[in-house]
Amino acid sequence: MEILLFQASFALSALAFVFSLLYLFRREDFFKNSWYRVLLASVVLHALSFVLRTADFWAGYPEGRYYLPLHSFFSVLSYLALVINAVCLALASRYQISVLGCFVLPLSLAAQGVCAWFLNASMPLLAPALHSYWMNIHPLILMGAYGVFVNAFGVSLAFLIQERQLKSRHPKGFVWQLPALEVLDRVNGKMVLLALPALALGMALGGLWSWDSWGRIMKLDIKETGAMASLIIYGAYLGLRWAGGWQGRRAVWINLAGFASVLITFLGVNIRLHHYVVSLMR
Amino acid sequence: MRDENLVVVGASHKSSTLSLREDLARQKPAQALELIRQNFNGELSELCVLATCNRYEVYAVGRPELGSKLKEFLISKLGASLQGDAHQGIYVLENSHAVSHLFSVSSGLESMVLGESEILGQVKDAYELALAQEYTKSVLNTAFQKALATGKKVRTETKISEGRLSVASVAVELAQKIFADFSNVAVAVVGAGAMGSETAKGLLHAKPKSQIFLSRTSARAQELANQYGGAAASLEALPLALESCDVVVTQLSADQPPLSAVMIEQAASRRKRPLFLLDIAMPRNIEEAASRIPNVYLYNIDDLKAIAETNHAKRKAEAESARRIVQEEVLKFLPRLIPLRN
């Protein structure tokens, strides 16, 4: 049932993406309202799927009871897609960035698509080190932060397109669809301001967990180093905005560098080097 | 028992001269409604008057000859000072033609600025006035409600209302795509000649947070500040204005040195917000290289005109789809007119 709900949510996300594209090109409110509603339905089904997955995990594996099943790549990626979609929906409606879906949903769709087509959804047993209440905190916070960073990436793309259009002095149709540069710039700043402390907290809590389990805070594998690099880049982004007055395109490029770091950290080294997470390919 | 027509009698910017419409417009809609009712007692059952800057129209339901009689009435009573053949600008449309006309009007297809949205509110106001004073019954109620719905449908399903058509409104819309909130934007108008342009007037009309006028002499700047409100300064304060204002409109005379890219770059480097420069002078006041400075958006008068013209062409292309929707809605509505003729 949970897989069925996940697949339905995936299909709805894809439909929401199509509607968001239609809104970008056709500018009809019907398509805007449609992608909001369809994405909301997708988020609800996805959340329900996650709840059922947790219930299944607890029912089939009593020793793992009270621990969230975020120890397989499928679970982590699926949860990340859920956060991305939920944040996208909140951002688009709160700040009237009605085209945000065009920039963000491809990434959540990619995450859901990898889950649906390439990963095994079965839930492995928890490694002994993961029998910890940190299991419910560390990945949850970090994936939450990553979900917000993905949305900041989408906003950054929208900014670059809008900025390029306005600079060209011959703006085309998209310029009237996208929000003002200042709105995109501010939303970007707010996103990073929200996600950066979460990233720092998630890393600190991971360190505590590591200390509890293995007696060391970090072993500085590539994943942990990558997370540290992301922390520094996004920290520099906020610092340069506030202290250096960096706005606009320059700031956006730092934001994009931060996102590249997050992506490499998450995807490049997730399976093999952060060995606590179990990867089950089909 | 019924053998009535729905008629519209009126004059628009397409059919008549301004003086004819001025003549007609002397009678406010409320007065016109009363006057027509007094003079056509028993000859008409429903009435509504639509008066805008570009049209003056009487919609009525009544006996078949009502159209020509209303036309004569408009000429003799409302347009008493008409001379020569000016009255030929008054048209009479009946039944399906009248409905089609009303739907086209509410859709902005008959407007001077194709697709403009203001007309929808004006049609609504006209209808509500007549409704409140019980001048309308089933036919005009349905016709006007359907016209309003069609007007909305046309604007939702086509892009006929999209894109600004005047250079001034294009400038304001561009500013709104750069800054989050135009009411939090400071505007500088550089050069006394700038206020002769629609661009500067349009920007000030959009109610920025503050405005400052810079001219060769402080006295001339002060005159403009007194006239339009805001602060005044001489051109010596230009570097400071570039640093502190968000939108700068320039129209300096040719004998003034141009604003160098270096000066603008220095100002931009000290700013935290983007800088929107509108060079509406001929010859241009701002060095072209300024357009390459980060966070600086430079537009000249030709850029603004090109955007306005593109928007106009797009609206014209959309008019065909809009007319199709109007036709469909008229066809749907016509069966409701049939009882009038039975």
Task: Based on the model shown, name its key terms.
heterodimer, A: 282 residues, mainly alpha, 10 helices, 76% helix, B: 342 residues, alpha/beta, 6-stranded parallel β-sheet, 4-stranded antiparallel β-sheet, 12 helices
Could you describe the 3D structure shown?
The complex is a heterodimer of chains A (282) and B (342). With 282 residues, chain A is mainly alpha-helical. Helix content of chain A is 76%, strand content 0%. The mean pLDDT of chain A is 86. In chain A, helix 5 packs antiparallel against helix 9, helix 7 packs antiparallel against helix 8 (222-242) and helix 8 (222-242) packs antiparallel against helix 9 (248-268). In chain B, 46% of the residues lie in helices and 17% in strands. Chain B has a six-stranded parallel beta sheet, sandwiched between helices. In chain B, strands 2-3-1-4 form a four-stranded antiparallel beta sheet, sandwiched between helices. Chain B is elongated, with a radius of gyration of 26 Å. The model of chain B has no long low-confidence stretch (mean pLDDT 88). Classes of the chains: A mainly alpha (282), B alpha/beta (342). Chain A binds chain B through residues 27-30, 162, 166-167, 169-171, 175-176, 178, 180-183, 186, 245, 247-250, and chain B through 156-157, 159, 162-163, 173-174, 176-180, 271-274, 291, 294-295, 297-299, 303, 306-307.
Q: Reading side by side through the largest sheet of chain B, how are the strands ordered?
A: 7-6-5-8-9-10
The beta-strand count of chain B equals: 10
Number of helices of chain B: 12
**From the structure provided, what is the oligomeric state, counting identical versus distinct chains?**
heterodimer
Structural class of chain A: mainly alpha
User: What is the number of helices of chain A?
Assistant: 10
**Could you give a short account of the major beta sheet of chain A?**
none
Give the termini distance of chain A in whole angstroms. Answer: 19 Å
**What proportion of the residues of chain B form beta strands (DSSP E)?**
15-25%
Chain pair forming the biggest interface: A-B, 23 and 25 residues
- The arrangement of helices and strands of chain B along the chain is EHHEEHEHHHHEHEHEHEHEEH
Quick check: average pLDDT of chain A?
86
